[in-house]
Amino acid sequence: MATPFPTHPLRTAADLAPVLAAIGDARVVLLGEASHGTHEYYTWRTALSKRLIAEKGFDFIAVEGDWPDCFEVNAAIKQDTNTYGTAARLLGTFNRWPTWMWGNWEIAALVEWLHHQNQRRPAAGRVGFYGLDVYSLWESLQAVLQYAEQQGDGAITAARQAFRCFEPYGHDPQEYARAVAFISEDCQDEVAAVLRALRRQAATRTYATLPEREQAFAAEQNALVAVNAERYYKAMLRGGGASWNVRDEHMMETLNRLLGLHGPHSKAIIWAHNTHVGDARYTDMRREDMVNIGQLAREQLGRAQVFSLGFGSYQGGVVAGKEWGAPLEKMPVPAAPRDSWEAMLHAQLGGENALLFSSEIRGDARLARAVGHRAIGVVYRPQFEHFGNYVPSLIPDRYDAFAFLDHTKPLHPLAIHAEENGPPDLYPWGE
């Protein structure tokens, strides 16, 4: 019989104490997930995020979501009073597919907690909630134009020109990418001009309060999103790993900007898929010259400043779509195949959840080679899982720790679990 991996129990939030100890003084904690639609990934990340904020003074959560939508949540949770009604209503801002990623009861519970925490803190010390992603080209352009018109400054001309450049393509950035693939003209210069104008403006102004500084920061960030989204959609049409790299490099640039906004001693919690969080150099992504935020954070901030925690499960259920833009569905997640990372842990633990630390499993001969590690996206077809949902990984190097949840269930999207029905029981383990 094979020697078991060293593991630690994972039953309640109190069992996260070894993770907090291992994190130590790290400045950035990356929390992964093996799917965008699994209840337990959200609740365990919430439980750990609460402890990091309350016990270690972390300043903000940044997620694999769009900047404009997340910034609306950020502004709401920093208000002295509740101006948004209910968290479920506030999360209606996430109205673009896949809506369930952030429009769910699990995130609603986190939003309520963050607002309650912030009401007890001075304005300058309130915990933020931000988006790292690059998809929101049109929404970000609209936000920049609105900000420039409100301020009545020199960025108005550049913002209007950029808006007009994209206007013929409606609200579909992919239509823009398809159009410019066949002509020489694009909108690259226009969005770059907006970003330059906002940066010149920021260099000449002093903002008296954090909300003012954040609003200016958000406008510049929206301009940056527009610049990188324009690059992303053109690269996506060409295929290969270029668009992936544009996206994760944007995530890392956004993280660095947020750390700068919050000061030299600020600390960040990142929520993103394992494929972004786990260091790409220790997966087959390396062969395609693809990078991710997990790799870039280690390289740019230093290994000691970054702690990554991957998540995975053996079987259960998930929320996903059968194709891009398809209606969300609750789908079964079949038992992981033999010789996968998840099957190895299931066989050892017999259905129990556990924490594993890379420092304790590094050197195990079974992990000296790459093993398959499940990855489910927003598009999923369970019957074909074994043909493309496993990423060959050197687990002890890809993560600093791993949370194994043997049997999981689907997320609770607001679109299915309506607000009038009230929130489901999210924490049966007594969070």
Structural class of the helices, strands and pairings?
alpha/beta
Q: What is the ordering of alpha helices and beta strands?
A: EHEHEHHHEHHHHHHEHHEEHEHEEHE
User: What's the architecture of the largest domain, going by CATH?
Assistant: 3-Layer(aba) Sandwich
Radius of gyration (CA) equals: 21 Å
Brief description of this entry?
The chain has helices spanning 17-23, 39-56, 67-77, 87-90, 105-119, 137-151, 155-166, 173-180, 188-203, 210-238, 242-262, 274-277, 293-301, 341-349, 358-361, 395-398; strands at residues 8-9, 28-31, 60-63, 128-131, 268-271, 306-320, 329-333, 354-357, 371-374, 390-393, 401-408. With 431 residues, it is α/β, with parallel strands linked by helices. The protein starts with 7 loop residues before the first strand and ends in a 23-residue tail after the last strand.
Task: Outline the secondary-structure elements.
Elements: E1 8-9, H1 17-23, E2 28-31, H2 39-56, E3 60-63, H3 67-77, H4 87-90, H5 105-119, E4 128-131, H6 137-151, H7 155-166, H8 173-180, H9 188-203, H10 210-238, H11 242-262, E5 268-271, H12 274-277, H13 293-301, E6 306-320, E7 329-333, H14 341-349, E8 354-357, H15 358-361, E9 371-374, E10 390-393, H16 395-398, E11 401-408
Parallel strand pairs: 2-5, 2-6, 3-4, 3-5, 6-11
Antiparallel strand pairs: 1-8, 6-7, 8-11, 9-10
Organism: Hymenobacter segetis
InterPro entries: Emycin_Estase, Hydrolase/PRTase-associated, UCP036794_erythomycin
Protein name: Erythromycin esterase family protein
